[in-house]
Design a protein that fits this description.
Blueprint: H1 6-19, E1 24-32, E2 39-50, E3 53-62, H2 70-83, E4 87-92
Parallel strand pairs: 3-4
Antiparallel strand pairs: 1-2, 2-3
Length: 97
């Protein structure tokens, strides 16, 4: 059985691939937690370059019935940090408060 929100995650993945065809865009990817070394799931993970500088982007997809609130944003910021991403993007189907 497919996990809830997988269709939304796949759509975001396809969008990311089209936005920068030169980037490596990975779907349902795992990266090591920078504190524990254990694998952490990422809906979408992007490896790209800005000029000659490498960047990694953690993308989280939220297909929830309610808008994303400040607490969920704080959680997302922490998730980005422990994954060691240079940047983060959060997509919400219903928006933010």
């Amino acid at each position: 059985m497919a996990k809830s929100g997988a269709k939304f995650e796949k759509a975001v993945y396809e969008l990311a691939r089209r936005l920068n065809p030169d980037a490596e865009v990975l779907f349902d990817h795992k990266v090591p937690d920078r504190d524990t070394g254990k694998p952490r799931q990422c809906d979408v993970w992007i490896e790209a370059k800005i000029g000659s500088w490498p960047v990694s982007i953690y993308v989280s997809c939220k297909d929830h019935a309610r808008r994303i609130d400040q607490g969920q944003m704080d959680t997302f910021i922490h998730e980005r940090e422990v994954r060691g991403a240079s940047a983060g993007v959060i997509y919400s189907r219903v928006g933010f408060t």
